[in-house]
Here is the input.
Amino acid sequence: METLASGDSGSHTLIPGELDASHGVVLYLEEVTVSFDGFRALNNLSLTIDVGELRCIIGPNGAGKTTMMDVITGKTRPDTGTVFFGQTLDLSQMTEAQIAQAGIGRKFQKPTVFENHSVYENLELAIKTNKGVWNSLFGRLSGEQTDRIGEILYTINLVDKAPLRAGLLSHGQKQWLEIGMLLAQEPKLLLLDEPVAGMTDHETERTAELLTALAGQHSIIVVEHDMDFVSSIARKVTVLHEGCVLAEGPMETVQHNEKVIEVYLGR
Amino acid sequence: MRYQPVSVGLAQRLFSTKGWTGLAAALGVILVLVPLLNLLVPVSSPLHLSDYAVALAGKILCYAMVALAMDLIWGYTGILSLGHSLFFALGGYAFGMYLMRQIGHDGSYGSNLPDFMVFLDWKAYPWYWSFTDHFWYAAMLVIAVPALLALVFGYFAFRSRIKGVYFSIITQAMTYAFMLLFFRNETGFGGNNGFTDFKRIAGIPIATGEMRMALFILSGLALLGFLLLARAIVTSKFGRVLTAIRDAESRVMFCGYNPLRYKLAIWTFSAVICGIAGALYVPQVGIINPSEMSPANSIEIAIWVAVGGRGTLIGPLLGAGIVNGAKSWFTVAFPEYWLYFLGLLFVLVTLFLPQGVMGLLKKMRR
Ligand SMILES: Nc1ncnc2c1ncn2[C@@H]1O[C@H](COP(=O)(O)OP(=O)(O)O)[C@@H](O)[C@H]1O
Ligand SMILES: [Mg+2]
Here is the structure.
């Protein structure tokens, strides 16, 4: 692959199409605005996420959390503002598939796994590899890839469910499978939209453990309503309100911020 | 940390032992039983298979190929095409051009142009008829024309993310536009009469028992070949991506796949199968005209697949056989009621047999 020395910093090499997080920041949103029929779902939103960070985004319904994820993953285009993955990748110019290939994985609010495929096949489809037509027709999983699938099955606690149709899993298990599919893509940035919605307390606890274990290796953004869950994992919390950042900081500080109490916590 | 290796039988087999046996049996029927009963058993014997029956069976084999093609795009990928009769007709017309050139001077005007061109007072073949007197050139057109049309049309439709009923409607509209085009005499494809009165293929007379049998066998082999190919496709990872696109397309995109390429590949392959089926169909029925592209035909193809069972490959073949078998009986016994019956069948299958005949068989086995 062609590499070229980056002009201004000179200290690192740059591979076109690959994440360059040399400044310690994996995601920049700058003054992003998205309107739906005049209604501003995102209003001048600015946000940065550091490499290896586990960030929680909270905010009342309609605050724009899901829309923000749509913008990052290329599902919705920003009307104004910029979205950069690392120093070099302008996400607003890339397709969903290119963004996924570049290393952003997304879990939807409603768990979406391939219900008619087995748990194993779901991971097989997600695993990081050449995703072209030709490779899908004639390629085979390498030994490394099957090992990786085994590891992920273990991580998400679904080893004995591997041959089962994913549609038969419980709601919580589907959420895990979806997280597993994200891990299989070896993303640099993981976006999780309400990962514990509909989970039992036990499942929620396990998910918290899973996410804390994953932070560090990956940068993670979690959108969540469940405040106990957020307190149990978050180091830094961003509160969204009416499409822009209301407050940001450690959970304890945010919890005591008056504006936040007014719009969200104090009900 | 070491994890236990997880061994899961991922590799779906191409066919089960029973499947292979069934295929071998079908091959035996096509290559041995039918030729034997038709050509060797004397006409007086009750076991004799009439020429009519062979021609009907050959025709149904071609329809079954189209049903298979439809299953790949509709059953497996979730894209309902109402343009498959167009690809079928284009394949038929492409090979029909060759058959017309094979008539030579034996037309009713004794010209070396087809009768309809003489009638239009044309003096020479239009440019797009060039080289169609060569068998292999025509055979190439049978594949290239549907493929090219599918590729271009599919590229724009899939790129614009046209889906569901919108896609069905624009494929239907395209087919209708082509039908109107082919109805015009000036288009150079024989207008509403189309092509007929074929005399020969490769210099060999067409209206003989041997030729009929050869075409029947060829259709059977093509069908089995495409069935094997289709099965290889749907058991590959490519096939699993197709069903994933059907079930949750945006998830597929967020997994890093570009659905456009996948849809385009299977859509074009599906069109090519139809083209080849059309080319085998035309010499067996002896005519191709624009009514082959009528909206009802495309809908009928979808009904074969629904009746047999979507996403099963074998089901649609059965569906094509059952519906067309019923049709050939109905159109003799109660011709005016056929369309009512077809509509009723579709409603009943949709309501009570969403998995078609294959679903019913599965239920009975349990
Ligand atoms: N596609 C859309 N069309 C119109 N309005 C939308 C669309 N998507 C989101 N919205 C509106 O934008 C606002 C933000 O929505 P969303 O991002 O889903 O909020 P959250 O996930 O924080 O609950 C809501 O008021 C919602 O109604
Ligand atoms: Mg939301």
